[in-house]
Amino acid sequence: MAQDSAEQAASSAGSSGDFPPFRQRHLLSIADLQQHEIIDLLDRAERMVPVSRQERKLHPTLAGKTQINLFFEPSTRTQSSFEIAGKRLGALVVNMSVKTSSVSKGETLIDTAATLNAMRPDVLVVRHSAAGAVELLSQKVGCSVVNAGDGAHEHPTQALLDALTIRNHKGRLGGLTVAICGDIANSRVARSNLLLLGALHVRTRVIAPRNLLPAGIEHLATEVFTDMNEGLKGVDVVMMLRLQHERANGKMIPSIREYYRFFGLDAEKLACAKPEAIVMHPGPMNRGVEIDPAIADGPRSVITDQVEMGVAVRMAVLDALLSQGAAA
Amino acid sequence: MRPLLVENARVVDPASGTDARGAVLVESGSISDIALNGPVGVPDGAEVVDAAGHVLSPGLIDMRVFTGEPGKEYRETFQSAGEAAAAGGVTSFVMMPDTVPTVDDGALVDFLIRRAQVTSKVNVLPAAALTKGLAGQELTEFGLLKEAGAVCLTDGRESIQSTALLRAAMSYAANFDMTIVHHLSERGLTGEGVMNEGLFATVLGLKGIPREAETIPLGRDLQLAALTGVKYHAAQISCSASVELVAAAKKRNRMVTAGVSINNLALNENDIGRYRTFFKLSPPLRAEYDRQAVIEGLRNGTIDTIHSDHDPQDAEVKRQPFAEASIGAIGLETLLAAALRLVHSGDVDLLTVLRAMTSRPAEILRLPSGRITRGAPADLILFDPDYPWQVAEHKIRSRSRNTSFEGARLAGKVMRTIVGGKTVHIHTEED
Q1: Which chain B residue is nearest to residue A194, measuring alpha carbons?
Q2: Active-site pick, B309, B314, B349, B379
Q3: Residue B309 known to be catalytic
Q4: DSSP A30
Q5: With contacts defined as CB-CB under 8 Å, which chain B residues touch A220?
Q6: Which residue in chain A has the smallest CA separation from B316?
Q7: Mean pLDDT of B52-76
Q8: Among B426, B397, B396, which residue's Cα sits nearest to residue B414?
Q9: Considering only CA atoms, which of B221, B101, B100, B229 is closest in space to residue B161?
Q10: Confidence of residue A195 (pLDDT cuts 50, 70, 90)
Q11: Strands B55-58, B4-13: pairing kind
């Protein structure tokens, strides 16, 4: 996009006149969103993309607002993305890594919430290793809360950025078939994506060894496969998930070598998908475990696009929750 | 002690199958006369209570209560548990040995009985640990524990993993005619699970506990019970497959019994909603079809007892993310009213529900109470089965407030509780 048009687009990005007020106070789960709210957030994010591409990356709709990134488990990627998103909107952004401070002194999540609430933030961006922890915290504070990943439950901004990436590459979402592959049982990314894509009537497939498929998954995905070659036939999007190393070596699966052989994405398996299929990964990747390095860095990979869309989506979410007209 | 006559009552006694208008006379702490559909003599100086047609039944015997005392009195004491029990219609409860120290020594059993007599309004019946320190490694002194007054053997919320050790325990317990009450949880399958395995757990992102974590040890236990001839009570079963296993075993072995927590009868996994930790229980709340199967098991006699699984936990450990919160809910005050839901819904008749909380526990534990018969201890309750009320946190008598019936609208209230002939609770409008 030319510099001028980018500036022009950015100048109107997120202005409240273009979008109806966003009625949610928090973003805790894709399951809480209506279809039109998902589309609204994707459209808002689309308008934020030029902000990041222009020279002066500032769209200060949140000037004077305070955003605290509260991460109970480490995450360089998501935390940085939220930090950049907040700063590009002009918010005062404070990063707190709680694991090494108050929690180790015996402070409970509720204590932490009360303490932070007294500092009068406008939004808390929270990651926690326990499912439901972010929602619990949201009940104890007076500001908006964004779920940046809670255990194996949800990671709503990841699903939104994935959807935006797909829409940008395919020009649409409806009518596509998306395959989510790998450790479905322990993946919050998979849950949020299944909910979001399902809400937009996208056909979803999950592909994994049976012991990495959670109970009842057939109610969340359109189709369930345990064979990559079968599952990838004719899909438009291949979304790989990170395999956590502690599940390998005889615990959940026999070995990395075996996992890669049968469930890692290589050229042979990718050939089953449509020729124009794109490859996604929420990162960080285990190259040679769930994905062949040549594919991860190859022409069909949109993984770096996902990272860029991540900032736009997070800007859109923060703006929707905090800018004038939101129901906070 | 003045004689006490309760007249104009609907006398319901599951042990004898009685459900009739009548009066019951209590003298010297025992039931001395029962008059059904006829007049009864009033001794000089007797206190006469007009039951106003309410149900007079044996007091409830709750087979599974965690007290907090000794060691965690901030959660519950004998005194506070006694208040809650009396208000809920429980006249005797079996206290689990998971205390600090563990109840694995005869001297402690003796002490607890004496202490409870002084501080609790109701009868506290200590269960003794099956293994030292509940560690599942070494057997306790069953004979000495029984002599001291322990009513049964159990490791409380712990489940014996070693089949060989459990076999030894069952064989040895049979020498002393002691009932083994066993919680069922195969540790490897339970793993880090925190709720029933299924779609709902998947949606919430919580680790599930499969039903097989219960049915596999249950199947093992039932075979060992047949092998050893012990009196065996499956502490609490929660799923359809367990009901089938117990039903099959009962056809071959009359020494086998089974209990169910009121939580698994009245609630299902959907009650967890959005991570409500008061519904984090062990065994976990299961699917609705499991709940229906357990109700059917109660109705057809496969399930013998209903207990509260009263497990007081303070706010600090419950106000946590679901996976990190402690397990357990209180239940003494709501046991009867929650069980009456089954009666009001038409699922189970009143006699069957009451039998599971009176005469059946008494039979399993060889207690003289739990029935309205001449000479039995006068442990009685008078309750209005239709009295509407709502569970309110500020009215809870337990020291901990972790009730899974918080805010629930219930029908059925205890008007008077009598323990050993003495009235220990009378309902007031403030209740």
Answers
A1: B203
A2: B309
A3: yes
A4: G
A5: 199, 202-203
A6: A108
A7: 97
A8: B426
A9: B221
A10: very high
A11: parallel
**DSSP-derived secondary structure for B265-282:** HH--GGGGTTT-GGG--S
Q: What is the largest CA-CA distance in chain B?
A: 67
Angstrom distances, CA of residue A221 to CA of A203, A326, B24: 8, 32, 63
A100 contact partners, CB below 8 Å, separation of at least 6: none
B194 touches B280 (CB < 8 A): yes
Mean pLDDT for chain B overall: 97
Task: Choose between A327 and B418: higher pLDDT.
Answer: B418
For position A270, what pLDDT does the model report? Answer: 98
The pLDDT tens digits of the residues spanning B150-185 come to 999 999 999 999 999 999 999 999 999 999 999 999
Question: What is the chain B residue with the closest CA to A108?
Answer: B320
SS3 annotation, B381-404: EEEEEEEEEECCHHHCCCCCCCEC
* Sole residue written with tokens 């009360």: A114
Residue matched to tokens 């949610």: A24
Report residue A90 as tokens.
Answer: 């002009």
pLDDT in tens, A128-137: 999 999 999 9
Q: Max CA-CA distance within chain A?
A: 56
**Are A131 and B197 a contacting pair at CB < 8 A?**
no
Minimal CA separation from B193 to chain A, in Å: 12
Task: Note whether B130 and B160 are within 8 A (CB).
Answer: yes
Cα A167 from Cα B389, distance rounded (Å): 54
**Which of A108, A152, A215 has its CB closest to that of B197?**
A215
Nearest CA to CA, how far is A49 from chain B (Å)?
A: 31
Question: Do the strands A203-207 and A223-225 form a parallel or antiparallel pair, or are they unpaired?
Answer: parallel
Output the pTM of the full model: 0.92
Strand arrangement, sheet containing B90-95: B60-65, B90-95, B123-126
Integer Cα distance of A30 and B162 in angstroms:
44
C-alpha–C-alpha distance, residues B389 and B337, integer Å: 9
CB contact residues (below 8 A), chain B span 265-304, against chain A: 274-275
How is residue B396 written in tokens? 């809870």
Mean pLDDT of chain A: 91
| B119: Cβ contacts below 8 Å, ≥ 6 apart | B77, B78, B79, B82
pLDDT (0 to 100) of residue B179 = 98
CB-CB neighbours of B386 under 10 Å: 12
Q: Which of B200, B204, B320 sits opposite A109 (nearest CB)?
A: B320
